[in-house]
Amino acid sequence: MSHTPFIIGAYSIGAIVLLWCAFAPLLRKKSITRDIRRLVQVEERSRDTNT
Amino acid sequence: MTPTRKRRLIAVLLILAGVGVASTIAFYSLQENLLYFQSPSELAQQPIPPGRQFRLGGLVKPGSVERQGQSLTTHFVVTDGPEEVTVEYVGTLPDLFREGQGVIARGALDDSGRFAATEVLAKHDENYMPPEVADALEESGHLMTEGKGGG
Amino acid sequence: MNVETAKTNKPRKNAFVMFIHKMGSPPWFYNFTGKFIPWFWAIFIVLTVWGLYLGLVKAPADYLQGESFRILYIHVPAAWMSLLIYISMAIMAFIALVWRIRIVEILAMTSAPIGAAFTIVTLAAGSLWGRPTWGTYWVWDARLTSELVLLFIYLGIIGLYNAIDEPRKAARAACLLALVGAVNLPIIHYSVKWWNTLHQGSSISLMGGSSIDTSMLWPLLIMAVATKFYYGANLLTRARVKLLEQDIRKAWVREVLKEKNG
To answer: Of A7, A14, A22, which is closest to C67 when you measure between CB atoms?
Structure first.
């Protein structure tokens, strides 16, 4: 039995899981930054209408 | 430390102690079921009736492996030193199956006291070394595994 | 920073206590840790490339297992991390429960997904190693089963933390679960000694000698150090994002983001 597919399989699963685990928080940060920006815009608009 | 913190600390420690005691009890009661396999010596002390499924683990006795002609039937002896059991297996053996190496067989004893295996897994040890080192060790008689090549 | 201590007439705090207090302030934590993350990633990448080169190219094949033993260089470091992250998470959970420091709560909670990822890698790589060596992908022996239980505990902590809406309450409940789940750690570690298992014993021991050849040991140690930096970088990244998320309406978050956008 050739061992190569098992080695490649093990390392690719490792790479996929660890890369995903590393990039997930960055995607989350992007969406949070977008939310904050929207929040700031809404606040500014309401301040403008109030004054 | 403030009184609230002390109270929290005590509460957390009490919970941990409770969990610790509970898991220790569970651990001792489950101990027997957690044995993945029986060694030939354990089998000799507490015999298992023929026909009941269990796992047998030990080393393949060097020189005991017999393959029967063209068929996939193999006979070998599993030993742990003081005791040994003869195993009969029909099927392909794992790559790492070799004489002197660890093996775990699932099956049941037949009436003649022979173990009829339905599955054989190779168990390897925690030693890792390049082939040259293994050869050198074997020459000087330090390496216990006697099977070489094969598989 | 000394103004406050002078005003309240408390004895002067030592540098370590000062550091702890500073780390407890979200903007300070956010900016301070932000400087380290790129370095941690860089060290992780350099060490991983080096370790994998030594392990996959330079190291000789094993006398018995042949090439398949190379899976060791991902399986073993991942398995160590799955336990180490749990230990670190449990210690932080304990501190969080008694002292209620929000940053520590966040650090404990953001450790869980990283630990779960390493546990998944451990199980998957181990399974792919088991097929060519043992002859099976999976057995229910004590070592494999307890490592699977570890994954479920990690998932339980993540699930509980996300199930409760109020973040601090959620953290407290999940921290308690993390502490209780720590009973599994000695079981995983000693399973190969306490019971007959298909899984072999430990090759590396801190006290005694290691039963692994030096040429095969070095890449393993390098990978073990590399994964620590991965944890460090990933944990700090996650903790910073969590802080932003929880403090979304606070002024410091706006300032931090404004600075960044110039």
So the answer is: A7
